[in-house]
Amino acid sequence: MDNVFSQLGFVLPAVLVLLIAVYMLKKVLNHDHSRRVFEYKKSISKEVISLRMQAYERLALFLERMKPVNLIPRVQQVNMKSMSLHAALLQTIRSEYDHNMSQQVYVSDEAWSLINDAKNQLLGVINEKVTSVSPHSDATDLGKLIIQGALEENKWMIDEALSLLKKELRDNY
Fold first, then answer.
1. Would you kindly state where each structural domain of the chain is located, as residue ranges?
2. 34/74 Cα distance (integer angstroms)
3. Which of 105, 128, 147, 171 makes the best surface tag, with the fewest CB within 10 Å?
4. Mind listing the pLDDT tens digit for each residue in 70-105?
């Protein structure tokens, strides 16, 4: 019995030292892991901020290009008919939208939703105004109606989306 107690006198402190060593090693490894994660996030944050800024710029450019006063002169050609202008406008809007679709991961859901609403509102105005002109009339007639229709809209989503993008950019960066 004395032999068991004497061996416990050696084993118990050894087990205690082992438990303390394991605890301390775990603390050190967790701290090291946390530090590495922080350093990694810090190193990529510069890249992410740059990508987000570019996304805001690209989406603002997209919205500016979609304003009818900017879109129609860019798409309309000499001797173009209203149906050709209609098709070209729809194609340009969809193409530019598709080109910028990936930028949605860098902006808020609210901003992306507003951009979609702005695009859909513009398409609605164009499709509404094309019914007011003859398919073979001059494209300038349709262009004037679209610009006039855009000016008549109570709430022009393109301007609202641009304002939200600017606000988000100022608030976050």
1. 49-172
2. 53
3. 171
4. 999 999 999 999 999 999 999 999 999 999 999 999
